[in-house]
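Methods — Computational structure assignment.
A single polypeptide chain was analysed. Its primary sequence is given first, followed by the predicted tertiary structure written as structure tokens.
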Amino acid sequence: MHPKTQQILKTFEEINRIPRCSKHEKNLSLWLKEWAESIGLEVKTDAVNNVLIKVPATPGYEDSPVIVLQGHMDMVCEKIKSSNHDFSRDLIRCVYDGDWVKGDGTSIGADNGIALAMGLVLAEAGKNGDIVHPPLELLFTVDEETGLTGAMELEKGFIDGRILLNLDSEDEGEFVIGCAGGKNSRITLPLEWETFEYGKGCRFGLFKLMIEGLEGGHSGSEINRQRANAVQLFARVFSGLREQVGKEYIRLAFLSGGSIHNAIPNFTDAFVALDRAKFEQAENIVSVFGKTFRSEYVKTDPEIVLSFREVEHGVVFESSGGKVTRKEVPANLVFSSGTEEKLVGLLLGLPHGVYRMSDRIPGLVETSNNLATVRTWETEIKILLSQRSSVMSRLAEITKKVGAVAKLAGAEVEHDAGYPAWEPDIESLLLSKCRQVYLQTFDKEPEIEVVHAGLECGIIGSKYEGMDMISFGPTIKDPHSPAERVFIPSIEKVWIFLENLLKSYC
């Protein structure tokens, strides 16, 4: 293993000792500031805890252009359902498995902790005389995953460089030169409750329906894999139960599914009041749906599990942004028939997945929607969706479609301001240099890509005129999921390329 790869992984493990779910990066921001000051580097932060570390040029490179290396501090905090990990206080444990490093039942935060680690190792290497480089600015932003907040809040003059290397791509050997823009939509369906007698000694009991074992994954870069959506699967199962068992024998009492806007939902928990005399029939229906789903998704989600059992009381632990909330199902209350009807129709009607493929770039998803989360509150049901498109007019189209379906169900919908797409520049001088250096280094051409995911480049480029940008990084599989892992040999290749690229600016 390359010694710098070892150093990067060691630094990555140090970063993973600090909880850093989206919107909770303050402690990491402070740690980065203290780290820079400890080795005598100039550092500054802003009102939202973005960090900028300035690294002086090595001798002979003082007149070279300033290069900005950029990554984000936050991570998507996902775990398997059996994990007791608390993202608000527990460190992320790195598990080494051959050429891969992964988490212990959790996402590992390689997206984008590896970028931070590379930047810090690079700064130290330059200071120690191990490598040569132009003046550097290490820009580490907050809250990329849930709203690109850090990039959005960057102020004029915070950075000086106009050449930006974004280290947030996930396939070594690919240079990303464009990305999708996006919006989040929040649907609120009014929730009316009805009193309903169920429990011990009653004809009706409380039953828990769980859908789990789905792969989930990144709602942008992996939306084209056609993976199952646990919220959609619930809608199909519950609709089938109502039709086959009879609406008068089964009533919905609580629903929770998914965890975050940019992850395909991989679980759903629901509680229903069911006539005990209908349990065997209902159990058989659920079993058939399980077999159907495993057949439909045999290549993408072969481990889908549906379970249906009676419980004495209902408790859900909802995890989002590193916070875990305990919610109890109200005793002797169910959704009104009207609410139930509207909710099922809404979940069945909302689009999910690829909406349109690009006409210009073969194989590129142009427009998509992720039906991300559903939550039960005291007086309303909230549904979160995330739309993406590399064509802003198409983004408006899919967003309006989401709104129209919501309104047909009698729900209210709010759309956030969103973020711009990063339009590719094939004539970029930076792209030309990167291609040349990569070819000279590895004797092969890199692949040039535009991705169906949100990168901070689109926002940074819109804020700082004349910015020439490219995005690359080591190979990361299944980001935004407990299966997230990074390919160790790819870290070495990115480091060697980066070292040669910086050297070329003399």
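Note: The mean pLDDT is 95.
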